[in-house]
TrEMBL record:
EC number: 2.7.1.160
Designated name of the protein: 2'-phosphotransferase
Source organism (scientific name): Gopherus evgoodei
Catalytic activity from the UniProt record: 2'-phospho-[ligated tRNA] + NAD(+) = mature tRNA + ADP-alpha-D-ribose 1'',2''-cyclic phosphate + nicotinamide
Enzyme class of the recorded protein, top EC level: transferase
The organism's taxonomic lineage, starting at the top: Eukaryota, Metazoa, Chordata, Craniata, Vertebrata
Encoding gene per record: TRPT1
InterPro entries: Ptrans_KptA/Tpt1 (IPR002745), RNA_2'-PTrans_C (IPR042081), RNA_2'-PTrans_N (IPR042080)
Length: 237
């Protein structure tokens, strides 16, 4: 992989609603890693930027790897580099396949889209027994006062992301950033009873579009944990 990688090209726009969530020093350290840079660029293009960049994306979210690598943002990146990012990503953010008709290598992001992808192989969770016992949204203490008042928002994406457990649970691979310092545990059965839809993505993240306004209102917050430096409950009011 060319160490300059995607960073040597014009920077891609920031993903919708993300903001700056990491400390500057940690972010700079990670951005020096070409594998991390490539993963971030893939995430943006496959979740948000494909149409703007002229990539043809199927309704299932897959794009041709050859077309992807023809973009100037992937100068010096090889198919082997892409395979390495997909195979080593701890959160299983991406999937590779050979196209069913002609064998073209294709890639997609498993979840996190603002683009409309109607056939993303999401599994509907229709009964309370199908929901994980714990569904938690990770956020940051600085955002908690606003979330406490207004609820969780899709923030320009198609879904709100929930991890099927809490940080430290061995089975939880994705759904919450590692540096989150607040976990909001959702009352899934009550939300489901009120008509809120839930899905499981290919990499195990629980997704919900929220209510008609794209929100999970605070009435569905079962409990809220501050994760650092010690775990403790935060007041819901």
């Amino acid at each position: 992989m060319d160490p300059s990688g995607a960073e040597s090209q014009q920077p891609l726009p920031r993903a919708p609603g993300r903001g700056s969530r990491k400390s500057g020093s940690r972010k700079r350290h990670q951005d020096q890693n070409p594998v991390v840079r490539l993963s971030k660029t893939l995430s943006y293009v496959l979740r948000h930027g494909a149409a703007q960049l002229g990539l043809e994306m199927g309704a299932d979210g897959f794009v041709d790897v050859a077309a992807l690598l023809s973009l100037p943002h992937f100068g010096g990146v090889s198919v082997a580099d892409v395979r390495h990012v997909v195979e080593t990503n701890e959160k299983c953010r991406f999937a590779l396949r050979s196209h069913p008709s002609d064998g073209r290598l294709q890639i997609r992001a498993n979840q996190g889209h603002s683009l409309q992808v109607s056939e993303l192989e999401l599994i509907p969770l229709l009964e309370p027994t199908a929901l994980p016992q714990t569904m938690a949204h990770g956020t940051y203490l600085r955002h908690w006062p606003a979330i406490c008042r207004g609820g969780l928002s899709r923030m320009g994406r198609n879904h709100i992301h929930l991890a099927p457990g809490l940080p430290g649970d061995g089975h939880v691979l994705s759904g919450m950033r590692q540096d989150c310092d607040v976990a909001i545990v959702i009352d899934g059965p009550q939300a489901l009873a009120d008509g809120i839809q839930f899905y499981r993505s290919a990499n195990g993240v629980i997704l919900t579009p929220g209510d008609a306004e794209g929100l999970l209102p605070p009435r569905y917050f079962q409990r809220v944990l501050q994760l650092r430096p010690d775990r403790r409950l935060l007041p819901l009011e």
